[in-house]
Amino acid sequence: MSPDLLVSFLTKLNALTGGVFLLCAFGLVGIRQMLTCLRIYVFQSLLLAISAIILGYFHASIHLFVVAALTIATKVFIIPWVLRQAVGYESYAKREISQAINIPSSLLIAVVIAIFSYYIASPLLASGAGVFEKVNLPIGMASLLIGTYTVTVRGEAVPQLLGILAMENGAFFAGISIAPNLPLIAELAAAFYVLITVLVIGLLAMRIHKMIAKTAVGELMALREE
Amino acid sequence: MELIYILLISLSAAALSLIPVGRRFAPGVTILGSLAIFLLSLRTALATAAGGEVIAVRDYLSCDSFSGLILLLVAFVGLTAAIFSWGYIATTVETTDDRKIRRYYSRFNLFLLSMLAVPIFSQLALVWIAVELTTLLSVFLVSFESTPQALEAAWKYAVLTCMGASLALIGILLLCWGLSSSSGAAFTWAGLLAASPQIPPSLLYTAFLFILIGFGTKAGLVPMHTWLPDAHSQAPSPICAILSGIETTAVLYCIMRLLPMFPGRAASAAGTWFVIFGLISTGVAAFLLIQAKDYKRLFAFSTVEHMGIILVAVGLGGYAAHLGAMMQIVSHTVTKSLCFFAAGATLMATGTRNIGAIRGLIRISPVAGIFLMAGGLGIAGAPPFAVFLSEFSILRAGIMSGQYLVIGLLTLFIVVAFFGIMQQINRMVFGSAEILLMDERTLSFGRSVNPGRNVPPPTCIIALAITIIPVILFGIYLPEQLYQLLHHAAASLGGGK
């Protein structure tokens, strides 16, 4: 295969990955089944790893291969396992009903957020950005902001946590294209950080579950201003 | 080298605290460790007071004047909180539960480690991680009392600040992009500052807004402040002192460091954002603290107010306002930790957090009453306390530069907050002694307090006495070295002399 053809193939593959990545962010807004949400998150992390491998090959950067390996190890294997341990199967296999804004409107809002992120990313891409940045930066930002929205409207502990993790995925999806030469120590620390986040929030959810026998954190309302 | 020792000492204190040998071991190790850290930080801060830099590992661990100042404040509050913890935790945790006490001190030291790392790290990606670790390592300290309210507060704290973390992360990554595409410098505060003229302004501006919103969530800026009064009121008092006194300020330090990157006119655009967020925070907090029913919540809202004042001062621009902001950082940190220690002493004496339930505290427990009054006056900004001096210099700097509208609003909010705080504290401290137990919202403390013994434990009194020294001293006199440190820190924000 000639080099030009390979580059154009990789670009298209990366664009496809980005598209499906964004679709996953929409999935986390629109799906109520907790277990499905978790699977979507794992799939989204896998797409992040694929994009990192493509970019790593393109830039010939060992860092990005490390990022891909760390992503697969933590987000595809360890995090789902930790969540199962901490929250218990029964509380996240069940159907979630509470969502502050109903799903069709939520999806519509997510579309608006995605357009908005293209709007804020476009001035940054104007001055000679590469093909990969043009795909990854707006999609990463969109996933980040849609994640923010997900956390806000969900009323259950696990979906809120998945929203936060999706936000992080979005930031990293943009990050692998715009900042591929972060020092290795920062990447290791970031992977470690994501793990601690899941551990801490998972443990907290477990304690809340013990205390009030459910994880509907949206119903915790004792502390507020009258 | 001091910087590496500081991090190692707090890490080893965290490990040693877990060793099960006697009840006194963990608090003892924690106090000794934080004393050593304080002395080392003082050395570092003095070395940076002349405007120099202390470098331990180039591009990774280093301290200039501004970070030296923050490091010194973290170490000071860490030391006093460690001393206060001895008496407070021994009184409030059941005597049989040794494991819980050891876990508390271990987490305390880890939390302190992450706080110390924020000013010590100079690599931006690592600074981000340190800031987020301060959240994650303190979540279980917030939920330490294991009441439903404490768990709720911890949940809001963890979720909202983690959301902020991701938003700040993309800002940091954008800065890294700008830096690597314009020059090959290392991704540190200094490297970024040197490269900032080559970075496209639109990129710098977008990154700045993401970081302002993301870290602003953690600093408690309105409207992202909703978790703050919950977390800062439910945690044990020594932890509240660290959270409110210095954690918020350390995060604000990261935001403030971005300001000198904006040259000329762009600086006033960034400054405008500071002023807007600052005024909204000060105003909303001033009116919310009037209706607070829980005195720890009252002080938490006052923290939001003070973060706003610092932001306004930074946003006003110019050396005089920046110096005022630095003074405000120092005076707020020492005064707010005094307030939360006094609140802890009050809680131990009365067993309730409800403002309406307490009358005549000065008769119930003279020590708690006197320190609560001093803390209240100090934080509200009455002369001759430190906050009065720093607020006065901010207002003066604003008037000198002709920003009358901003200063007018700021003065109004400060006055409203003053009366809000003083009215509540007055009701609690004076009058005939009584504690009404009318709590339907279970603001009450986990266990009943023996009404005969209302002198706080000696270590708590020591912590209160140490903390009140700078609160009064800095209102009258600033030591020359501290002034030099503040001067160089203020000059590092740009805006000329």
From TrEMBL, chain A:
Keyword Membrane: yes
Domain of life: Bacteria
Compartments it resides in: Cell membrane
Alphabetically ordered keywords of this record: Cell membrane, Membrane, Transmembrane, Transmembrane helix
Main location: membrane
Topological relation to the membrane, as annotated: Multi-pass membrane protein
Transmembrane intervals: 6-31, 38-58, 64-83, 103-125, 137-154, 161-179, 185-205
Classification via InterPro entries: HyfE-like (IPR038730)
GO cellular component terms given for this protein: plasma membrane
PANTHER family the record matches: HYDROGENASE-4 COMPONENT E (PTHR38601)
The protein's name in its UniProt record: Hydrogenase-4 component E
